[in-house]
Amino acid sequence: MTKFAEDFLLASDTKAFDPDHRRIINFNIGRYNAAVERGLSRLTNLEHAKRKAHTIKWRVMENLDKLLPEFESNFQRKGGKVIWANDAEEAQREILNIIQRTGAKTVIKSKSMTTEEIHLNEFLEENHIEAIESDLGEYIVQLLGQKPYHIVTPAMHLSKEDIARLFHEKFGTDINATPEQLTLKARELLREKYTTADVGITGANFLLADTGSIALTENEGNARLSVTFPKIHIAIAGIEKIIPSIADLDLFWPLLATHGTGQNLTVYNSIIGGPRQEHETDGPEEMYVILLDNGRTNLLAQKEQRQGLYCIRCGACLNACPIYKNIGGHSYDTTYSGPIGSIITPHLRGMEDFKHLSYASSLCGKCSEVCPVKIDIHKMLLLNRRDAVKEGLSTATENMGWRLWRKAMLKRGLMDFVSGKWKNRLMRTFFKKSWGKHRDLPEVASQSFSKQWQNQQQTNNL
């Protein structure tokens, strides 16, 4: 077992039986579920919309080699610059080159899981560059020195009392401050950062091939502020974020908003197509888009599993997953947690280290059911398990156990040969630890069903 798997099991065991954690996450996801149910009820023919979105993303993956150069050409025509990054280190290096070349010292960031993926904040701090998160949830977890807990709501694991206590310790606010008061304090602290930052860094919810633009969707307006005041804007996005046309936003923006937060549309939706033009009064003097691979082409090469790249990062599968709702986001120790993280992380970061995530599932299929682009997530989990076995990553003990289990399951005589008493003894000996210290092992009946059936038939025939 790898260290990542050991850490996952330990963290899962701790979080699943932490009453406060369970109370907070169930409350927050409960509110999400109510909002999304209302939002989805307003959509006409949701199934058709999801099928259409799936088809568009399928077409994108089949034509990435055409759509990405189209985006690059159209974006550069407006004065923007495109940088291709093979991995996290290359992306970090390119961002640092831009910052150092311009003599910048401060960075303001809007919410971006891609920058989390390349560990940008830590990298900039190592190079003595201040990077401040402007999304309120991201700002809160940054103050705590934590990673985002959820891909949409980074501070979902915290109660309002937790945040009030944090602000009291950091900024001297009232220990009983309301969420509104805490938000006003954050706004007061961040407004100056927007106007003084040298560089603004964002992600991109979508890359629009036909216009050479990036599309940003948000609820706080911090992304707009992060690109308006600084002289330099750097957007970093995975290569899978491309969509063919600006017209496709008519479909993807409502799907993302409704599945992400239950809204018809998020509050701020921006399309940015390059640096400030001569006739424009605001915006950056320079704009860069970094197209990040970082293992995505590994997943693209897997014909059966490339569906994982269709994801639009709405977070719906996390909120539906019974595993996530018990162990939370930090237990995964990955940028992308929950069901979607479990299917893409082994391809982005290595099957050997992260195959365990594909086993952390009940295979109930709820994740596939709620996905707005109809990714067959639970099937992808099974395919990852298959690949892990094919690559020889399962242990000899595990392989032997499954062979014996298969042999016994295929021969009723072997199953009935061992009595219920011995079966229970075997379970207590070999499976007590793996079943978990918080649960009792099921009790096997003294006679198998087939034996009971035979006895019943003999009795009836007397």
The CATH first-level class of one domain comes to Alpha Beta
Catalogue the unreliable spans. Answer: none
Query: How is the largest sheet built, in terms of strand order?
Result: 1-10-7-4-2-3
CATH topology of one domain: Rossmann fold
Estimate what percentage of residues fall within beta strands.
5-15%
How many β-strands, per DSSP? Answer: 10
Describe the structure in your own words.
This protein has 462 residues and is α/β, with parallel strands linked by helices. Among the domains are: 252 residues, 3-Layer(aba) Sandwich (Rossmann fold), CATH 3.40.50; 51 residues, no CATH class. Helix content is 55%, strand content 10%. It is built from 24 helices and ten strands. It has a six-stranded parallel sheet, with helices on both faces. Strands 8-5-6-9 form a four-stranded mixed sheet. β5 and β6 form a beta hairpin. α2 runs antiparallel to α12 and α16 packs parallel to α19. The radius of gyration is 25 Å and the shape is globular.
